[in-house]
Amino acid sequence: MTILSFDIEEWFHLLDHPSTRTEADWAKFPARIHENVDRILDMLARQNQSATFFCLGWVARKYPEIIRQIADAGYEIATHSDVHQLAYQQTRPQFKEDLIRSIQSLENITGKKIRAYRAPGFSLMEANKWVFEELIAQGIEIDCSIFPAARAHGGFANFGEQEPCWVEVNGLRIKEFPINVANIAGMPLVFSGGGYFRLFPDAVLKALWDRQSYVMTYFHPRDFDGGQPMIEDLSLIRKFKSYYGLSKAMGKLERLMEGRQFIDLSSAEKQVQWDLARVVRL
Questions:
Q1: I need a surface site. Which of 37, 156, 175, 230 has the fewest CB within 10 A?
Q2: 111-150: pLDDT as tens digits
Q3: DSSP assignment string, the chain
């Protein structure tokens, strides 16, 4: 199964950077989310593909028409937190408040239960695995936040699973659809979205995707926006990671879609034999 998902946030929602951290900082940048979401929806209609949209509560309140547009087109809505902060930088009460606000903001627009969550930056780790308890308490049934390797923004180095499974914490279970990593030159790298997707050539991506029976993608509106402004105070390496390949990314994704059917998270959930799925106890 190949799951197509988009994290609906603005182009300036870069994590772990001083000038893009708070809502006050965000007010200094021009909005580009309308045209960028339109680009994604036009592509999906053209390719006749389904997808799940992990949306910020902040977007729902500031631009409710965007959430309505996505929902009215028949796509599944999930939460990507409220104000796009790294989960491990939040206290448990802060995380809970952020989660509840995001769910309420999205459900008030769609009228449908929010069942799935993805943490900004896949920012879950051993130290904040209590996040799963909070997700379950708020009615979240599916998580898509696990990075099955160590990384700068969290990760679980010993997770050992790159397919749908159960995550169990203190006797509570939640369905998990982890991100994919590939071992390239001895490093675990994400190939199914974000910066590395834009970096790798088509042939490498196709080879990596073809060898997987399960692929969880993650894209952002900014990944396809070659005209977005440069955030000047980024380091050189961060500028490269954030801006390389933007103008070519949509064509690259569409070429990968040739002969390949993408599905949304709900469809993927139905394909899994959950009574036989592995249980990962954290």
A1: 230
A2: 999 999 999 999 998 899 999 999 999 999 999 999 887 6
A3: -EE-EEEE--TT--SS-GGGSSHHHHTTS---HHHHHHHHHHHHHHHT---EEEE-HHHHHH-HHHHHHHHHTT-EEEE--SS---GGGS-HHHHHHHHHHHHHHHHHHH-S---EE--GGG---GGGTTHHHHHHHTT--EE----SS-BTTB--TT----S-EEEEETTEEEEE-PPP-EEETTEEE--SBHHHHHHS-HHHHHHHHHT-S-EE-BB-GGGG-TTPPP-TTS-HHHHHHHHTTGGGHHHHHHHHHTT---B-HHHHHHHS-TTTS-EEE-
pLDDT of 153 > 70? The answer is no
The burial of 138, by beta-carbon neighbours within 10 Å (0-12 exposed, 13-18 middle, 19 or more buried), is given as middle
pLDDT value, residue 220: 96
What amino acid is encoded at 10 in this protein? Answer: E
The DSSP bridge pattern shows strands 172-176 and 142-143 to be parallel
Q: Is pLDDT at 189 greater than 90 in this prediction?
A: no
Residue entry with tokens 């389904």: 50
Domain count, the chain: 1
pTM of the model: 0.95
Q: Which domain holds residue 73?
A: 2-281
Nearest alpha carbon to residue 242 among 211, 196, 186, 187: 196
- C-alpha 88/C-alpha 68 separation (Å) is 30
What CATH number did the domain enclosing 84 receive? 3.20.20.370
